[in-house]
Each structure stands twice: as structure tokens, then as C-alpha cells.
From TrEMBL:
Domain of life: Bacteria
Keyword Transport: yes
Name of the protein: PTS sugar transporter
Keywords: Sugar transport, Transport
Length: 83
């Protein structure tokens, strides 16, 4: 499996381990649910920083897991506070 495909699958699988909402922000009006493999498949490129909102009952654990999986695939991540 290619490295970008592996990253998509790993991020999606890890996001689905949590009940919290995990949302990638791509632009002012573009949001992708990290639990959607189809959405993720259209978005991951190594040359950008990803903005991620995580909120819900297990958000602390979910944030730590997302930091870990993004770092594993050398993807830059910035966690944002939920609006």
C-alpha cells in the first residue's frame, strides 16, 4: 500500500476509535470528517499543515491519538479549539 494511502487508512481508522467529532479544516468553507475515508482520500498532501478540530467526551485521548498518527506519517498538524 502506498504511503499516502496508508496515511489515509491509519488516520481514518484511528479517528473511528473515538466518539468525539474529528474534523479537518481545508479552507474557510471546507470541512472533512476524519471518519470519512472518502473525504480523507481527496485531501492529504504532505506539503501543508492540517487544521483539526476535535471535540467530544473523549477529546483529550482523540487529540493525542491524532497527533501521533499524523506524526507517524510526517504530516504537519495544528489542533484548534472547537468553535
Amino acid at each position: 500500500m502506498g504511503s499516502s494511502i496508508r496515511a489515509i487508512v491509519d488516520i481514518n481508522m484511528r479517528a473511528n476509535d473515538f466518539s468525539s467529532s474529528i474534523v479537518l479544516v481545508l479552507g474557510p468553507d471546507q470541512y472533512i470528517d476524519a471518519k470519512s475515508i472518502l473525504g480523507l482520500s481527496m485531501t492529504l498532501y504532505r506539503n501543508q499543515t492540517y487544521l483539526l478540530y476535535v471535540y467530544g467526551p473523549d477529546q483529550m485521548e482523540a487529540k493525542a491519538a491524532m497527533r501521533e498518527v499524523f506524526a507517524k506519517h510526517h504530516l504537519q498538524l495544528q489542533l484548534k479549539e472547537a468553535p
